[in-house]
């Protein structure tokens, strides 16, 4: 079988048949220029002699070859001539106007002669070319590229055209440019370039057109190019070729240079930087700003295509980023984790204009040393002209408005110091270095921003149909809807089309339902869209929940206790059931099923079925997904097993917490491994609100409390009505509360000791267990899911009003059912220190000198002799420990403390402690 390099995807269009006869050989006249010779296909067995046995037709630069069994009924001499003419047009544009190398000579051993490029037609009886829509490949030994395609993929006599040939011929020229030939690192870029070629052809038509780049818009937070939009990433190449910001070297011929001057195995972004000399941060940030209004040469054409796409209102929330209000700061917004850009990825955030001056202060949220961003404020005027602020990174940018603006945007691109080479054909099944949670090139770069004079815009749908307020909740219901009075429709929610809504369904916040069937106890909340059509109806039933900015459309279904959250997108006949959760920007299509306790998250893109574990990635195999690790019932877990001052990393998935104000992390503390310590003043973790959105659940955490004010919160989830645990209420006793229900321990926590706290909620009953002992159980009037709302705040180590936790935490886990009793493996307690009398004075003699350094080193090296309970009379005391804790205070006694004191004595640092 012919070696096939499948570099293009099928496109569909209207077929127009023909059964006319044709001569065996057709020659289309050409001007007298260089002679281009005909050549046969050559593979492992030598020449195949297609030219001798089958039908051929030629123009000056091309030869079409087809068999004697036209199964399409399309081929006749008019059809063949039409497509030879089209191929000549593509070549003229690509080689003359764009400067690409011709495809007439071998990339291996040119013989000084020029040859026509071959096109073989499938479904015509040609051996080895029996099937195939439209592909480019290359002969393995001769170095000549060719195309094989279905006649239906070519230009038809009635003018219909899938535009496959201009795409595939682009591949041919990329191959003959040599720079990217046999280079795996450039693999995904081939499709973007081929589509860019096609668009250049479209631009020469009497009425220019475009195949647009909607998949890129939906996925522009991902790195360029990602498997979810590598065909449509051509718009980035369009930016390089148009060069609207006048970078040196960039321009019309730059895409040619990108392919011809690439070094072996050079990543295209490295090639761009080397050839252009551009600051890549500025280049990526500048491209990002143009995406706000699609401000390119064909701006009008692109916006027409965008407007057509936006006729399905859910597309708006798939394209644009809707930041979440920061729970702990006023006028501050955080980009959702699933929308935070990867390297070279970007966000476009539409803004409501609310003043004459707009000010944005950007702050990154990343523990990557190389992290950086480029942002821009973009305005569009009444005349359609787009204006840009200067780019900015972390810091503040202010612009003045003159009242003629009709649109305002904030664009933010991830521009780390290094763009890490990657190939999205590499899958996690090939190694952890390619996985979503462990590969550096898939790292997200979240950020937050303060804003004045404007506010983020959220999806809105204008009502232009007849309807009424629903008696239960006051929301809008179209007259065409069938709905029970028992259904709740909130005042800002809408139910449209021929939807059928029954039983105890809740549709609240700004949720929209159209042509859907929803029953039982299902809940649709936040800005979720459940959007069907006349030809396909989504079904939501059981206790299913659709929330945040998720979209369920076409014939997809969600049932059982399943949840669809984040910016997930379900379509076709994909099904989510049992206790599965789909979130992130997961794209679920086909007839797959997420069941059991599967979590589909991050950049998941697949039609496969998953029953357990956290699944990510573009088209990971079924075999890989079947082996995903998981812990029974665990939705999210923070084990604090790696150092970070920014994130509490999830055990398996991407439900990470955001750490505020850098609590101390230690590899070992008080016989626990991987511990985070909060100062009781301003340190805490912001958690994803999906943690609390359960009817039945367990929260399990291990904490060491150091005392202090009453009513400190180990966790506090909710808004108004909340669910919390404190190690000491006003009476000094541990207490769990949710709504009006409280469970209080009779025994106080010992300061400095480890306690495993379990809160189990099942069948409307809460149970509190501490160190394996059941403290009490109570019937509930409020369930965790009832504390869930758009304004839900979920904190670890603080409450909604402060109440910061003073202590350490070994882990924090959330299950969707009761879990097994965790092991109590702690063998020691922590010595609680008094206030230091003199920092650095380890031996408590009233001075700081080398003797203090010596004592600390002895106490660390020989704790049985010189530790607090050591046998040597000169051992360190409890007060000495407090005085000696001068390096990252609260971290316990280490040799770092001795080094800090030495540095203080030598005058290297001016004061203690050393942070």
TrEMBL record:
Q: Where does the record locate the signal sequence feature?
A: 1-29
- One Pfam family of this protein, by short name? Laminin_G_3
Identify the Gene3D superfamilies for this entry: 2.60.120.200, Dockerin domain (1.10.1330.10), Hexapeptide repeat proteins (2.160.10.10)
* A GO biological process held by the record: polysaccharide catabolic process
Could you give a GO molecular-function term held by this entry? carbohydrate binding
Q: Does the keyword Phosphoprotein apply?
A: no
Superkingdom is Bacteria
Task: State the PROSITE patterns in the record.
Answer: DOCKERIN, EF_HAND_1
Q: Note the InterPro entries from the entry.
A: ConA-like_dom_sf (IPR013320), Dockerin_dom (IPR016134), Dockerin_dom_sf (IPR036439), DUF6055 (IPR045690), EF_Hand_1_Ca_BS (IPR018247), Trimer_LpxA-like_sf (IPR011004)
Provide the Dockerin domain boundaries: 835-914
**Keyword annotations for this protein?**
Lectin, Signal
**Under what name is this protein listed?**
Concanavalin A-like lectin/glucanases superfamily protein
